[in-house]
């Protein structure tokens, strides 16, 4: 797979929303794709243990928990751009679980992904280097990269990634 970052060019669509506006079509479609995998999305104020997090993904097969939580006190969900990034990032973790906890890409592709992150989102590189180690760093690398992909590509990937898998 040749991984290339396709920069988002429609900044106006992503940047300007008001609290009274409905979610963008892309966010609605991503939530529908997540629902088709069994993942629910909830919005709530998160506690101090999640002070540095905009959202998180939880999975526990025994407790039938497959949930993305968006921390409403840490992210402005009325701003579609930030809302999208949180959902795309956490959706990647849901797919990783669907893929039996494996990374989405083969190890040989990770250096290319990292180069793209360093070029287009160097702040993510800083987060990866300072907050994560080992396998968790690789999984976060994929999730940060997914945030940067075109919305339709992310939606299609999430919608199709787990269709034949049972959690």
Note the topology.
Blueprint: H1 11-15, H2 25-37, E1 40-44, E2 55-60, E3 65-71, H3 80-98, H4 110-120, H5 122-131, H6 134-147, H7 151-161
Parallel strand pairs: 1-3
Antiparallel strand pairs: 2-3
Helix pairs in contact: 2-3, 2-7, 3-6, 3-7, 4-5, 4-6, 5-6
Structural features, described:
The chain has 7 helices and 3 strands. With 167 residues, the protein is mainly alpha-helical. Helices cover 50% and strands 11% of the residues. Helix 2 runs parallel beside helix 3 (80-98). The model is unreliable at 1-21 (pLDDT under 50). It is globular. A hairpin with a 4-residue loop joins strand 2 (55-60) and strand 3 (65-71). The chain has a 3-stranded mixed sheet with strand order 1-3-2. The chain has helices at residues 11-15, 25-37, 80-98, 110-120, 122-131, 134-147, 151-161, and strands spanning 40-44, 55-60, 65-71.
Distance between the termini: 26 Å
SSE series: HHEEEHHHHH
Q: Identify the strand order in the major beta sheet.
A: 1-3-2
Uncertain spans: 1-21
Residue-averaged pLDDT: 84
Rg estimate, integer Å: 15 Å
What is the count of DSSP helices, taking H or I runs of 4+ residues? 7
Major sheet summary line = 3 strands, mixed
Give the overall silhouette.
globular
**Share of residues in strands:** 5-15%
Query: Level of helix content?
Result: 40-55%
Judged by helices, strands and strand pairing, the structural class is mainly alpha
In total, the number of strands is: 3
């Amino acid at each position: 797979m040749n991984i290339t970052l396709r920069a988002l060019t429609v900044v106006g669509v992503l940047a300007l929303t008001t609290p009274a506006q409905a979610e963008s079509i892309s966010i609605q479609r991503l939530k529908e794709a997540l629902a088709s995998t069994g993942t629910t999305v909830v919005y709530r104020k998160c506690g101090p243990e999640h002070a540095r997090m905009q959202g998180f993904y939880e999975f526990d097969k025994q407790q039938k928990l497959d949930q993305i939580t968006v921390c409403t006190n840490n992210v402005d969900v009325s701003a579609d751009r930030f809302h999208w990034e949180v959902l795309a990032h956490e959706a990647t973790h849901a797919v990783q679980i669907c893929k039996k906890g494996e990374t989405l890409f083969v190890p040989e592709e990770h250096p290319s992904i990292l180069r793209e992150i360093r070029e287009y989102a160097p702040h993510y590189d800083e987060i990866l280097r300072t907050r994560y180690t080992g396998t968790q760093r690789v999984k976060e690398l994929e999730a940060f990269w997914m945030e940067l992909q075109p919305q339709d590509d992310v939606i299609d990937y999430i919608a199709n990634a787990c269709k034949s898998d049972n959690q």
